[in-house]
Design a protein that fits this description.
193 residues, alpha+beta, Pnp Oxidase, Chain A, 7-stranded antiparallel beta sheet, 7 strands, 32% helix, Split_barrel_FMN-bd, TR_PAI2-type
Length: 193
């Protein structure tokens, strides 16, 4: 059995780009001097590259422009219990993730500002960020724009597609309910702090 089987993968650029547009916050992973670094950074797609920005106080900033990176975009996950099915099953997890490998590099300040405006435009239809917004002028000194030149994409969508249509629909329903229940739990935890 190969990892992941073909029925759990979709590497078409149309699917990958759409997934990133809906789930733009990525775990950015790099390695430097035998140490692993991770950050959580939103990215947008621009001409087959990914654009984002990083805080200059982030330890990852010091080497990122010299690094090969992996980004993991998260679309959720869910435990699937055998008790939900009449057929004999094993416990499993279903998930939707996109992995992208590439070379990171820093961009000029003008590209940083453009990426901030473009990202806001893509993510927010209620607010328009202008290039002249006074907070951008203050913020730009503390962050660095970056781009990732995409070298490899891997869409991993394990959603019980290898099962019967009834099983697949049940697994999708469990996925939705689990995501909602877990988010409600998290929000209640935060309220208690």
């Amino acid at each position: 059995m190969s990892y992941l089987p073909d029925h759990f993968t979709d590497n078409s650029w149309t699917t990958i780009q759409s997934f990133i547009e809906h789930f733009p916050l990525a775990t950015l992973i790099s390695s430097y001097n035998n140490e692993i670094f991770t950050s959580h950074i939103p990215f947008i797609v621009d001409n087959n590259k990914l654009l984002g920005h990083i805080n200059k106080d982030n330890p990852q900033f010091n080497h990122l422009h010299l690094s090969k990176v992996e980004l993991v975009f998260h679309g959720g996950d869910s435990y699937i219990s055998p008790s939900a099915f009449v057929t004999e099953e094993l416990p499993t997890f279903n998930f939707a993730k996109v992995h992208i490998k590439g070379q990171a590099s820093y961009v000029q300040e003008s590209n940083l500002i453009k990426s901030l405006v473009d990202m806001t435009s893509q993510l927010d239809d209620q607010f328009k960020l202008s290039y002249e917004h006074p907070k951008i002028d203050k913020l730009k000194h503390f962050i660095q724009g970056l781009e990732v030149n995409i070298e490899d994409v891997n869409g991993r969508f394990k959603m019980s597609q290898d099962k019967s249509n009834h099983h697949f629909k049940k697994a999708k329903d469990l996925f939705s309910k689990t995501q909602k229940a877990r988010m409600n739990w998290l929000l209640k935890q935060l309220e208690q702090k």
